[in-house]
Amino acid sequence: MQLLLVASEVFPYSRTGGLADVMAALPEALSRLGVSVTVVSPWWQDLNGEPQEIWRASEPRNGRLQPGPVRVGEIVDGDVRYLFYGTPDFDRPGLYAEDDVERFCRWGRTLLPTLASMGLTFDVLHGHDWAAGLVVAHARLMGLRSVYTVHNLQYQGRWNAQEGFGWTGLPPQNFANVEFHGDINLMKAGLVYADHLTTVSPTYAHEITTAEYGEGLQGVLQVRESAGQLSGILNGLDLERWDPAADPDIQPFHTPAGRQANVELLRQEFGLDDAPILAAVTRLVSQKGMDLLIEALPEVTQDWNVVVLGSGEALLEAALKGWSQHSRVRYVSGMNEPLAHRLYAGSDAFCMPSRFEPCGLSQMIAMRYGSLPVVRETGGLVDSVPTDVGFRFGPADDEALVACLQQARAQVEQPEKWQTRMRRGMALDFSWDASARQYQALYRSLDRGQ
């Protein structure tokens, strides 16, 4: 099987979030199953690595989109082929910008014709998130079967339809398939045109068919679900990258007892007292529910030290900076990979009070490193955090979070029970193998026309 994976970023070549991590691990897992995998993403100017240019051609003017050459670069890593497709719009510093809808329309409408002109053919296309939505639409028009995965329905790729529809390259009769409240919507394009839809956890697959989580697209998703064309496949975890027994950023350990050195080192690093440590490594946005933790800090700090690593909304950052004057609260702005590893390895519990969470990887990493998750019952957190390992709460409010943390704190006082939870969590299998087999079966069903 010849598979084409399409996404806006892929680790280690480009990354802003979890999508890039998925695009690093899933292709490798599929290749181990015998799938011939090609991954294509934009040729960002700030791309890590040096692709070898293998194709260059001209691309005509279309509306406001500027003319100029398109080019394709290649890096082969193991059994996976990475192609980087560049247009002039991407030849500037940084990654995402305000004109991304315009840029990804041009990218999306020209990508497949360019690959075809190079003589490349594929059995199935697998597009990821809104930036690949238009690629999926053009795949349908070209007769290529496709899967489309929603990683986060909140980000949709919208622009004024009067101006933007011409960018898509779609025939006028297809307007309704991408129109959304007077805008074009590239996420909707993927949802409508793909042969099968997936999300990154089974619970999230159902949640997005409801008004609460559907972001206005629940009607489209309900139709696909009723037709048996929507499913959830839980993301896996890169077990080589996240291995507490071989992690160079921590004191390596194999057992719950062996991680105690990391707890003490983290306590010393931040000057914490002997209360248990609650950590969070997160984007500071409403989705992640960190405002709930901030509101709960007066009660939480009676029982816990709290260490937060992340950045995002200015009000949340300011609140955490203010709280960092407290003897039991520490806030580190930005993203710091080695520190993140130390927090997973040295915290007693890991806080994810998300309002919604399509999948989440932090809770998986935390359990693998022996830190017990305290999570809200939503999306992938439900599917990945067993109640005999972590602690879950329902309502998205600070009182429910406080009650859950009090439950966890009471169990800290029972070391044998806490160690049992840790052992269970560290033994969970979050490898990509099971997820990759589910995707492979889905690709095969589409390739056979089922």
Number of H/I helices: 16
Report the CATH C-level class of the largest domain.
Alpha Beta
- Any idea what the shape is? globular
**What is the number of beta strands?**
18
Average pLDDT metric? 95
Radius of gyration: 23 Å
State the low-pLDDT regions, or none.
none
- The CATH topology of the largest domain is given as Rossmann fold
Strand residues, percent: 15-25%
CATH architecture of the largest domain: 3-Layer(aba) Sandwich
Q: What is the domain total for the residues?
A: 2
Pfam families: Glyco_transf_5, Glycos_transf_1
EC number: 2.4.1.21
Function: Synthesizes alpha-1,4-glucan chains using ADP-glucose.
Keywords: Glycogen biosynthesis, Glycosyltransferase, Transferase
Structural commentary:
This protein has 16 helices and 18 strands. The protein is α/β, with parallel strands linked by helices and 450 residues long. The protein has a 9-stranded mixed β-sheet with strand order 3-4-5-2-1-6-7-11-12, with helices on both faces. Strands 15-14-13-16-17-18 form a 6-stranded parallel β-sheet, with helices on both faces. Helix 1 (18-32) links the parallel strand 1 (2-6) and strand 2 (36-42). It is globular, with a radius of gyration of 23 Å. Residues 3-222 form the Starch synthase catalytic domain. Belongs to the glycosyltransferase 1 family. Bacterial/plant glycogen synthase subfamily. Synthesizes alpha-1,4-glucan chains using ADP-glucose. This is Glycogen synthase.
